[in-house]
Design goal:
single chain; alpha/beta; Rossmann fold; N-(1-d-carboxylethyl)-l-norvaline Dehydrogenase, domain 2; 2 domains; three-stranded mixed sheet
């Protein structure tokens, strides 16, 4: 049997990730602020814990998959955090999307507690989380990466070591910039398609063979065409990630014209009572403006 893993964050991504670890015979000590998520973890064969502190007891590696950097900081360094129970020398794998600077700051704080830190955000969405085929972008010392590699390999199809702490966060920011700019372009293009009276399914098939194709276009547009607007994404996460992108670009003195336009589109969607919707619901902004709503 594999070593014990403390896993904090059993949400839409975290719970299927713990299920992957359980299938690979890891002992997974799971915690989430939502009791029902902890119960689902227990039902799947995991160890149910009442706090991050309890999850870290007896574990050799801690994995954190929460919404933002503040939640990650609380999960690790709070009064009931992992840092109070993980043994010195243990590795904390932070899979939460945050700025490179924030990741480096938390890594320095982890070192004060005798803990090692992996900056390891992921991409792939809930389906790839469930199948253990995520892409993981690692910023860490090579020795620390090898220490955590069995866990990362169980969760990922691709594990990239990009450099020291902060490098993984930077790669994730590049990825998210492309995700949301591509999504904004895709829904705008399909609004034009529909407004012009073309067959959306036929145009989709064409684009998937042409230079305009992207992973986002191919995976999200079918859910737009079928009218469900459900792709497994989150408007709130989109807005959070876009905020990180804009803040970091501002700190770097880098103009990000396309990202800023995409951000305004997502903010318009949130202001139109879509803040709690799937991020694909951003297409409804165009539907309303173009008179395409049914």
């Amino acid at each position: 049997m594999s070593e014990a893993v403390a896993f904090v964050g059993l949400g839409a991504m975290g719970l299927p990730m713990t299920n992957c670890l359980l299938r690979k015979r890891f002992v997974v000590r799971g915690y989430d602020v939502v009791p029902r998520r902890v119960e689902l973890h227990r039902e799947a064969g995991g160890v149910a814990c009442s706090s991050s502190l309890e999850a870290g007891s007896g574990a050799q590696i801690g994995v954190v998959v929460v919404l933002n950097a503040d939640q990650a900081e609380e999960a690790v360094f709070g009064q009931a955090g992992l840092a109070r129970s993980l043994a010195a020398g243990s590795v904390v794998v932070s899979m939460t999307t945050m700025s490179p600077e924030r990741s480096r700051s938390l890594a320095a704080r982890a070192a004060e507690h005798g803990l090692r830190w992996l900056d390891a955000p992921v991409s792939g969405g809930t389906e790839r989380a469930a199948s253990g085929s995520l892409t993981t972008m690692v910023g860490a010392d090579a020795t620390d990466l090898e220490r955590a590699r069995p866990v990362l390999d169980a969760l990922s199809k691709h594990v990239f070591h990009l450099g020291p702490v902060g490098a993984g966060a930077t790669a994730k920011m590049v990825n998210q910039m492309l995700v949301y700019c591509n999504l904004a372009a895709a829904v705008e293009a399909m609004a034009l398609c529909r407004k012009a009276g073309a067959d959306p399914r036929a145009v989709y098939d064409v684009i998937c063979t042409a230079m305009g194709a992207s992973a986002i276009f191919e995976s999200r547009v079918p859910r737009l065409i079928d009218g469900t607007y459900q792709s497994g994404g989150s408007m709130r996460i989109a807005l959070k990630d876009l905020g990180i992108l804009e803040d970091t670009a501002r700190e770097l003195g880098l103009p990000v014209f396309m990202t800023s336009q995409a951000t305004q589109l997502f903010r318009a969607a949130a202001a139109a009572d879509l803040a709690d919707a799937d991020d694909l619901a951003v297409a409804r902004v165009f539907d309303r403006l173009a008179g395409l709503e049914s």
